[in-house]
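Researcher: Quick test of sequence recovery. Tokens follow.
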């Protein structure tokens, strides 16, 4: 269960929890899906995988306080998948199951820019390259993101 973060950046923000299953096979079974993973399933499954990496990081390193998601209620299709809090500092993480980043994929990270204490914005994707984009956004492939987690460098 992932709770929404209320930063009061907008007049109203989402107030419902998001639920993730510990086993993506369970989700597929509940939907009566089997065999090859379909393209529309890839995004939610990849997002769940990254959440489990973050939960393991939280458990092992004990260096973050909370994991939230952020979504303003008045901005349709704008969200940040994970907002990590460590004291008064935040790291915003957007997850995309794609090999190529489009400008629309950065919408949530740009929208949360005004959050007080925001130290880092990261987009994790299934592509090969890692790079720094304008707006101080770090784009990382899964391997680079995993290495940063294992070195406890999310807030660097």
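Model:
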């Amino acid at each position: 269960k992932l709770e929404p973060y209320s930063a009061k950046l907008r007049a109203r923000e989402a107030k419902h929890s998001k639920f993730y299953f510990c086993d993506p096979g369970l989700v597929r079974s509940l939907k009566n899906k089997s065999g090859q993973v379909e393209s529309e399933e890839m995004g939610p499954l990849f997002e769940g995988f990254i959440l489990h990496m973050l939960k393991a990081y939280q458990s092992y390193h004990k260096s973050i306080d909370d994991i939230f998601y952020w979504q303003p209620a008045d901005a349709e299709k704008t969200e940040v998948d994970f907002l990590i809090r460590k004291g008064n500092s935040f790291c915003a993480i957007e997850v995309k199951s794609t090999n190529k980043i489009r400008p629309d994929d950065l919408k949530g990270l740009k929208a949360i820019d005004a959050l007080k204490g925001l130290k880092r914005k990261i987009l994790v994707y299934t592509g090969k390259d890692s790079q720094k984009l304008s707006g101080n956004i770090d784009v990382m492939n899964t391997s680079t993101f995993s290495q940063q987690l294992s070195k406890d460098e999310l807030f660097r």
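Residues 39-61 form the longest helix (23 residues).
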